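Contributing new records

If you add data, match the layout below exactly. Sequence lines come first and carry their own label; structure lines follow with theirs. Keep one chain per record. Anything else will be rejected by the validation script.
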Amino acid sequence: MSEHYYISEHRELLAEGKAILTGDECQHLTRVMRRKTGDEVLLFDGSGREFVGVLETVDKDRAELTIKETRQIFNEPGIDLTMAVALPKGERQKWLIEKLTELGVRRYIPLAVERADIKFDANVHKRLQRQVIEASKQCGRLRLMEILPEMSRQEITQMFVNQGTRIVTDLEPGPIFSDSQLFPILAHPITDGQFGQWSFRMFTEYFQKTTIPTRMLVVIGPVGGFSDAEVRSAIDDGWKTLDLGTQVYRVETAAIVAAALILHLKD
């Protein structure tokens, strides 16, 4: 595994062939990895660019590098996937963010629901963003997964509409999808079948017969699942509902199962 370091500040210097690492990244570079002046270092800025830098000067909390080479590398999945998931408790948050990042999910939205377990605030947001960086460095992903503010399902839909995205809920065979269209799914376990959920088999068979969307949105509820009113509201809006299997998954497990299933549709 190649060791990458994240450029979080002074990005304007990249145009001049320079880079500066501070804080945790500088500490890891100089104190953990013990890199010295003259060493080549791989950097990334979270947008898909990789930089080959040479370490020029090292101070206590600051390292300056000269950029030798810039590469634009695309190693993202073929589906732009947004996962809106009710935030679980404790260390399960880290596991959720780490795995969604590794899988290639484009953005994560903490989902506001009736049965919320966790309060999402600025400190939680900052911690999740740091976990995205660490997971990206570990897996070699050069584009950071976005962490958006907490939103309800309706607010998420409106956000995409405001960006000029059309929510598409009825699929037909043929090349109907574009980057301005989004296909939404609500994951909800089958109980008495009253909501007409797709099974895994129905889901995969469906996409064998039609064009696979390039942009998808999946929402996952909290411990105990969505309320009946929340599910009915999504169905009334035309959303498909998906059952993830006979086992009862934790929130973070359900999110990983759903993300892996969808992102591998275009493998």
